[in-house]
Amino acid sequence: MAVRTIITEGDPRLRQKSLRMRTVDDEVRRLAQDLWDTVRAARGLGLAAPQIGVLRRIIVVSIPPDYVEEGDPGVELTLINPEIVRASGRQVGLEGCLSIPGWYGEVPRFMHVTVKALDLDGREVRIKGSGLLARVLQHEIDHLDGILFIDRIEDRSTLRYIPDEEEEESVTAAAS
Fold first, then answer.
1. 122: which of 24, 82, 146, 169 fits an S-S bond (Cβ 3.0–4.6 Å)?
2. In terms of pTM, does the model score above 0.85?
3. Distance between CA atoms of 98 and 70, rounded to whole angstroms?
4. Averaged pLDDT score across all residues of the chain
């Protein structure tokens, strides 16, 4: 469909709460395809509709196979009206965001989450995620509530700028 422009910090839409989707129709599917086209072009791990200026509760998650460890399966999810219904454990890890390019920081998140959502057929799904998948799900759902990863950093000294040329070598962050 279309690669959309990713809006960046300072745009007020990133701080607004997104509206629930009432139905899953062709318009929602087109929006989902635009999210997929955009996240792939940006080489991110996830993207939420507010990041392209659309205040609707829809996210995509794209973790390539072998991203963390060899043998890890890839994950591709489109979730409409996602909400965390169960969470446990704690992890702290490096995160970045396509809406705050180049900046990374250590963010505490739940280690395990269960997310309830609708799929593109309008059916309810439950996704259980641990580790990186749990982190990306929480990061993207935060976007739907106007929360950025920098809001969750406990130790501001971990926030740092990493130029693009160094990023691939030094960062295995949840950049979404």
1. 24
2. yes
3. 25
4. 94
